[in-house]
Amino acid sequence: MAIYTPPLRDMQFVMHEVLDVSADLQAMPVHADMDADTINAVLVEGGKFAAEVLLPLNISGDTEGCTYDAKSHAVTTPAGFKEAYAQYVAGGWAALACEPEFGGQGLPLIVNQCFYEMMNSANQAWAMYPGLTHGAYAALATHGTEEQKATYLHKMSSGAWTGTMCLTEAHCGTDLGLMRTKAEPQGDGTYRLTGNKIFISAGEQDLTDNIIHLVLARLPDAPPGIKGVSLFIVPKFLVNADGSLGARNGIYCGGLEHKMGIKSNATAQIVLDGAVGTLVGQPNKGMQGMFVMMNAARLGVGNQSLGLTEVAFQNALAYARDRLQMRSLTGPKAPDQAADPIIVHPDVRKMLLTARAYAEGGRALMCFSSMLLEKEHHHPDEAVRKESGELLAMLTPIVKAFITDNGWTATSGCLQVFGGHGYIKEWGMEQFVRDARINMIYEGTNTIQSLDLLGRKILGNNGATLKKFGKLIGALVAEEGVNEKMAEFITPIAMLGEQMTRFTTELGFKGFQNPDEVGAAAVDYLRVAGHLVFGYFWARMAQVALRQMAAAASQGRPSDPFYLAKLQTARFYFAKLFPETATLMRTARTGSKVLMDTDAALA
Ligand SMILES: Cc1cc2nc3c(=O)[nH]c(=O)nc-3n(C[C@H](O)[C@H](O)[C@H](O)COP(=O)(O)OP(=O)(O)OC[C@H]3O[C@@H](n4cnc5c(N)ncnc54)[C@H](O)[C@@H]3O)c2cc1C
Predict the structure, then answer these.
(1) Among 165, 171, 174, 201, residue to substitute to test ligand 1 (most atoms within 8 Å of Cβ)
(2) What is residue 381's three-state secondary structure?
């Protein structure tokens, strides 16, 4: 079985030493009393739940999978899942970051995000059952009527009911404008929905007694395309006026997908057979509500790969220190043993450090993004709310695509550290790789994220949001530009920032003449932007580490090796990973012709 130790010290480092989240939180009236001790105490308990309850169910759940009963349309989750869910609810974990007015505990989103990172490390597939509920909750809290909020949100915040997102149909995944599911008004404020959805995560389960599906469908008079899509709440069981469960609704699971990873999460085909639903938001404006859920889910998917990167790293590190093969190139390091541990070999260290650098860079970005979301909703200053929302909109595709692409590289590298043993099921490594793969696909494939970033979020506003992030880098450069010890971190990000400005203008100009130029460059562009963002956070982490080490030296005490480890990882990141930006900009600049002028090659 895989091992996992919740990375609490690393989380505390990012939250309290790098980002100083308590100060930011205390500036918001809803979190005026929040402090580091409270956050840390909750996460200690959250880590126990992940490591002690969910981790033991990860491999067994993957092996057993979910079962479907065609007669009753029921889905049974693997052994232990139901009990773990009951513990999750009893522990109040579902309510952590939900608003007190809907029965929530009102803790900051960053606490929930760190808790979910740990659950994703321990068992991504299990964590998806409650995980999707948060996005559905947010969509209803933002766009639902008072009656809808009163009917559903308390039950969702307590974990009594889960939520799903039902967008995809067999012929329509990326292009939701092709959607066919219909919604007929009944004249009493309700609608009857008919159609077939596929690939619906947690679409059916035996963990809760109701499931609240958020479904996209078309009204009879809807204009064609995405502008004719509306959003509906369709509960598995109708809810009576007194809140009790009513009749079974005409929405059911028609079968489960058999798939590569996250096998213990039920990926359901959902049949809507005249199911009763109510409209969320305005007719034909369904994407507004669904985008609240999709944006939450995109951040959640980045967090899934962060969790997998961390747990894969922990396991590979332990194995590399233990496994004896060959001697170090510079002479035996364990002369009393038959061979040296493989951690002495440079390339093994490279794979380990890659995973570590991606996990810790990803955690800094995730925590920063959670704070932006918090500020967007709760900061008393309207200008801060607006600015936070805009920056988060730009960072969301980077969180989703950069962290999940890195997660794939990292989990695959960590499997490689195990050699053939990584390919064998018992160590758990091959499961991390399989589970990590879906994160690059769902919630809008990573290609779609890159088009969203370059086409809409960057070129769509002439680089204004990129300049906002540039300001953060500018402030760090101004603060540390003359500090020689920081030069190895500051110089690369300052240079890349300048190059990105030219690079973006160039792509905008080429894209204006030929839109395929944007499509051809977008994936490379997102990776460059991802490194700019990671570079910024790694520079800030190195800054804190250097300051702590200097403080220890000036007081004549040994420095905590934790900080030296951060510094070494920062140096590795800037030396071995960040420089891929030069190649990426070069390949992006080769343009679209070598892709589009290739009909013979692709005939
Ligand atoms: C395990 C699993 C769980 C899922 N969970 C859910 C869920 O809970 N709810 C839900 O609604 N859906 C869910 N999905 C569906 C998922 O979101 C879609 O599979 C995904 O959005 C891609 O759609 P598609 O599979 O139809 O691929 P397509 O849209 O057919 O795309 C195929 C390929 O073409 C590329 N492509 C398409 N358009 C463009 C373009 N304009 N430019 C460049 N490339 C393009 C894509 O990037 C992709 O590589 C899930 C899928 C899986 C496998």
Answers:
(1) 174
(2) coil
Mutate to test the pocket of ligand 1, among 264, 291, 400, 445 (most ligand atoms within 8 A of CB): 445
Q: Whose CA is nearest to atom 44 of ligand 1?
A: 447
Q: Is 199 in the pocket of ligand 1 (CB under 6 A)?
A: yes
Q: What is the mean pLDDT of residues 226-243?
A: 97
Q: In this structure, which amino acid lies at residue 498? A: E
Catalytic positions, please? 443
Residue 70 tokens, joined: 């065609």
Cβ proximity of 250 and 215 under 8 Å:
no
Model confidence pLDDT, tens digit, residues 80-108: 999 999 999 999 999 999 999 999 999 99
Instruction: Report d(CA 48, CA 332) in Å as an integer.
Output: 39
Question: 19-54 burial, b for 16+ CB within 10 Å, e for fewer?
Answer: bebbebbeebebbeebeeebbbebbeebbebbbebb
Q: Report which protein residue has its CA nearest ligand 1's atom 2.
A: 199
Query: What pLDDT sits at residue 124?
Result: 98
Q: What is the pLDDT of residue 346?
A: 98
Reported as a pLDDT band with limits 50, 70 and 90, residue 463 is confident
The span from the CA of 118 to the CA of 121, in Å, is 5
First to last CA, the chain: 47
Average pLDDT of span 215-234? 97
Mean pLDDT of the chain: 97
Q: How far apart are CA 254 and CA 271, in angstroms?
A: 6
Residues, the chain, total? 603
pLDDT > 90? residue 572:
yes
| pLDDT score of 279 more than 90 | yes
